[in-house]
């Protein structure tokens, strides 16, 4: 065997070992079903080279038109949602939560688990999968309602401006089955993905926290998401 050939053989062996190590270190994907809508969410998701673990699933329903014969309000399923965290960074922060709330009941009390996510300095991702067609106006109105406290005359002008800039990102109608993704970084940078098309929003840690409060706050829009978060946070022990 020539010296050049031997060198290429050694290089090929090293590359094979690296590929094998990368494969073994990659978390195996699984699917978790949101039972109310039967939508399935894959975990982990890969975003910017990092694994994001599913820590909560929920179903958002809103009041629709009244039933003609009975005059009772009907609930219409709008979207199923998966909540993901940057696994590595959230795992580092998780022991601090366990120290204060070692049981699931204690995590739920005083919204400790929910505040861990809202205030945590790690990447967060919401995947909203729509169950019916929605207009860009409907999407913007959903978030406008959830962020109403930031749009009053009492709000600092910079924060109100950032909130309006965020709402202006929603410029595309979505079909049933299409996804809207909301991402916030550990520093408060905000991005959205409308059916895979990325838009960069304002950088505002306070606005980012208010976004997560839409679902995880004490008056959150998805009670079942708050509960499933407590059930699934143990994944950060792995």
Would you write up a description of this structure?
The chain is α+β, with helices and mostly antiparallel strands and 238 residues long. It has a single domain, classed as Chalcone isomerase (3-Layer(bba) Sandwich), CATH 3.50.70.10. Helices cover 39% and strands 29% of the residues. It is built from 8 helices and 9 strands. The strands form 2 sheets. A 7-stranded antiparallel beta sheet has the order 3-4-5-6-7-8-9. Strands 1-2 form a two-stranded antiparallel sheet. Strand 4 and strand 5 form a beta hairpin. The N terminus is likely disordered.
What keywords describe this structure?
seven-stranded antiparallel sheet, 238 residues, alpha+beta, 29% strand, Chalcone isomerase, 8 helices
Write a brief structural summary.
The chain has 238 residues and is an alpha+beta fold. 39% of the residues lie in helices and 29% in strands.
Mean pLDDT, nearest integer? 85
Corresponding CATH architecture: 3-Layer(bba) Sandwich
CATH hierarchy, class: Alpha Beta
Number of helices: 8
**Number of domains as seen in the coordinates:** 1
> Strand sequence of the main sheet, in spatial order?
3-4-5-6-7-8-9
As residue ranges, the low-confidence spans are 2-26
Coarse shape: globular
Structural class: alpha+beta
Portion in beta strands:
25-35%
Which SSEs are present, and which pair or pack?
Layout: H1 3-25, E1 30-34, E2 39-43, E3 45-47, E4 50-66, E5 73-86, H2 87-100, H3 104-108, H4 112-119, E6 124-130, H5 136-146, H6 157-167, E7 179-184, E8 189-194, E9 197-203, H7 205-216, H8 223-232
Antiparallel strand pairs: 1-2, 3-4, 4-5, 5-6, 6-7, 7-8, 8-9
